[in-house]
Specification:
Helices cover about 40% and strands about 20% of the residues. It is built from 9 helices and 9 strands. The protein is globular, with a radius of gyration of 19 Å. The structure holds adenosine monophosphate (AMP). The site of adenosine monophosphate (AMP) has 17 residues, from helix 2 and strand 5.
């Protein structure tokens, strides 16, 4: 079983001890309710040479807006620890909100341009919450590598930027999105979906697949590619936050025509559940549609 700790000092001590014993520390930050997507990040950390893998579980209030699902977000610590044990995780750090943000907390880390669009435009303050907490996790664990999922593509790019801009001594790894057999990206929020809603959610997968197929056949017209995703998603979802085709590095909108790599990113709501997904056309293996 992994050691489970709730205080930053315990993480510092455990990671220092692991490093003294010659281990490389790898960090996998999560909000818990662990699924196969998270577990793939853990495996990736080990594969990249982290002998001492630290998983953090923290539902971070700073990254939720006032009308979002902070209160009902699933909290399943015992099951999460059991899953971590199966994957050989060494340490689970599960701080509470007061430990992470003690009274009087007033310091934040902000990445500018990259966070202006997409998720940043629809979730004001979200990335500031993410970058601040991930910085704190890096500070205590001082990992040599940290693994994030490309399911949250903009988050990954933002954290990469932050680490580079602030000379953080950590290598960031972006792991491809892990999907269900029918293509739906794994997400802790999928458990909010009833069976009919889940079936509707597959419109995202069909859209991404259609865009990827068109792209592979030579389509570079941004509006055409965007419409291939927007049309099925608009039909199936109750509300669409965005469907965007952008440069995969700057996240700036593609002009009339894309380059030979383009990010297509989606966020949309079914009832009270908000889902996001993406595919880098010209790079990612697109989701399989059964
Ligand atoms: P979360 O617990 O949702 O904040 O996610 C924690 C980490 O797991 C983030 O780096 C996510 O991008 C990553 N993640 C979540 N879902 C997936 C997935 N389906 N495939 C790959 N990584 C994922």
């Amino acid at each position: 079983m992994p050691v489970v700790v709730h205080e930053p000092a315990a993480v510092v001590e455990a990671c220092d001890r692991a490093r003294s014993a010659g281990e490389r520390v790898g960090l996998v930050p999560t909000m818990g309710a662990l699924h196969e997507g998270h577990l793939a990040l853990i495996d990736e950390a080990r594969r990249r040479g982290a002998g001492y893998v630290v998983v953090t579980i923290f539902v971070n209030p700073l990254q939720f807006g006032p009308t979002e699902d902070f209160d009902r977000y699933p909290r399943t610590l015992d099951a999460d620890v059991a899953r971590c044990a199966e994957r050989g995780v060494s340490l689970v750090y599960a701080p509470d909100v007061r430990t992470m943000h003690p009274a009087g907390f007033q310091t934040h880390v902000v990445v500018e341009g990259l966070t202006a669009r997409l998720e940043g435009a629809h979730r004001p303050g979200h990335f500031r919450g993410v970058t601040t907490v991930v910085t704190k996790l890096f500070q205590v664990a001082q990992p040599c590598l940290a693994v994030f999922g490309r399911k949250d593509y903009q988050q990954w790019k933002t954290l990469e930027r932050m680490a580079r801009d602030l000379d953080m001594r950590v290598t960031l790894i972006g792991h491809p999105t892990v999907r269900e057999p029918d293509g739906l990206a794994l997400s802790s929020r999928n458990r909010y979906l009833g069976p009919a809603e889940r079936a509707r959610a597959l419109a995202i997968v069909r859209g991404l697949r259609a865009a990827a197929d068109a792209f592979a056949a030579g389509e570079r017209d941004t509006r055409v590619l965007e419409a291939l995703v927007r049309t099925p998603v608009t039909e199936a979802f109750d509300r669409v936050d965005y469907v965007a085709v952008t440069d995969p590095e700057t996240l700036e909108p593609s002009g009339e025509r894309t380059g030979n790599r383009a990010l297509v990113a989606v966020a949309a709501h079914i009832g009270t559940t908000r889902l996001i997904d993406n595919c880098v056309l010209g790079e990612d293996t697109p989701p399989t549609v059964p």
